[in-house]
Amino acid sequence: MEGSHRAHSVIAGVIQRLSVSQLKKHKLCPRAWYFAKVLRLPEPTTGAQQVGTEGHAQLEHYLSTGEDVLGAFAKAGAHLLPTPGPDLLVEQPLDGAPPLTAGGIPFTGFIDLVDARQLATDGVLRITDHKFTSNVARNAATPEQLADANTEPGLQMIGYAAWALSQVERFPGLRELELEHLYYQTRGQRLAVSVLASVPVEHVAREWRTKVEPQVEQMKAHAQAARAADVPANYGPACTKYGGCPFMAKCLTGETKTMSLRDKLLSKPSESVPTTVAAVEREALELPAILPPDAPQPAPVQVAPGATEQPAPKRRGRPPKSSRPEPTQPAAAITTHDSSVSEHEGSGNPVKDLGVQALFIDCIPTAWGVLQPESLTQYVDTMARRVSQAAGVDDLRFAGSDSSLGFGKWKGALAMAVRDDPPPPGVYLALGLAHSELMQVVVEALEPSFGVVVRGVR
């Protein structure tokens, strides 16, 4: 695990230092890296990150001192760990002498574990990174990925291996590296699995030279961009990974913002502004073009050619829907609810004044009027933390049998809290639903209160 480094790593478009986590973030999405490291926008922490931090601290103490302070998750992998001892390099810094560099830029960070006990006899060095995950079978990397710097896990491990190659005096006779991810399962069965890739030093040097060094040159160029819009974005899995990108709204509606709903209405002075709920719903639904997470980067302006509308339950006195050609390849399913939309005196914002709430589930609107799309992730984390604190537990998902949240009761408690304190009116993105049980519970509780609900269809 890489340690926290609070000094700014990018200043005035010039990269001062790098980390392996920065390489991974840039590989996943250059624009997300730009938001985080160049514009230095804050990123929310999650309960899963807290579990990983605690687990790493336990492992570090145990391997350094031999004192068994391992919690339930880390203890499941105790049989896969080397015997503690002073010869193990635990939380080894990358910026030692000499530091790891690429493109002339030094790296900072820490390697969880370096074991040189086979070096003298076999010329083998093992580098281990601890991974806490909810599902080992689904999330574990393969040995092939650990050896390939074009993959996220491989980029990390090749970076650590490249550091070892630079330590010629410390590791004499090094000819082979064992790159290991040691996984600890945090949900369901207590389980730990080791994934190991053995690679010669020549392979590591080649991967670093041909894949990582060119990426660092790209990062230098991206760091000098004047606007986020000038940095490429990887629309697709990167938008939904790890519970959803925290910069989604800024990425989609910042400097490439299309004409707002208010502007569209004001540009038609000869037409009356729609005043009924149904009219506003129809106007709103015609604006966004739904972009599934695995679709290519959208054009600046699109109009819903890939959306199909599912009619809401019939209600007495409801005006008929406007005619619309049948789509040929639906990309999203749209559901509308009227209960959350009410008329009142306005403040000049036709959408917000009517209390319209829109929820996009595993899909992305390329335009949504005057309201900027906002990720639901921070709201989910806030509500989960609030329920956890009320029950006196660190993480509601891991509440014990003696807790009021035990045996899955946390789901009902979270749903109740969400219904009592929903997010304010706006346009929200719920991404990565299949990978977050917290997000699933929150979306299920909130869905009836949204005026427009759009689900991505794969």
From TrEMBL:
Transmembrane segments: none annotated. Coiled coil: none annotated. Residues 17-67, 104-251 form the PD-(D/E)XK endonuclease-like domain. Residues 290-299 have a biased composition (Pro residues). InterPro entries: PDDEXK-like_dom_sf, PDDEXK_AddAB-type. Residues 290-349 are annotated as: Disordered. Gene3D superfamilies: 3.90.320.10. This is PD-(D/E)XK endonuclease-like domain-containing protein. It comes from Myxococcus llanfairpwllgwyngyllgogerychwyrndrobwllllantysiliogogogochensis.
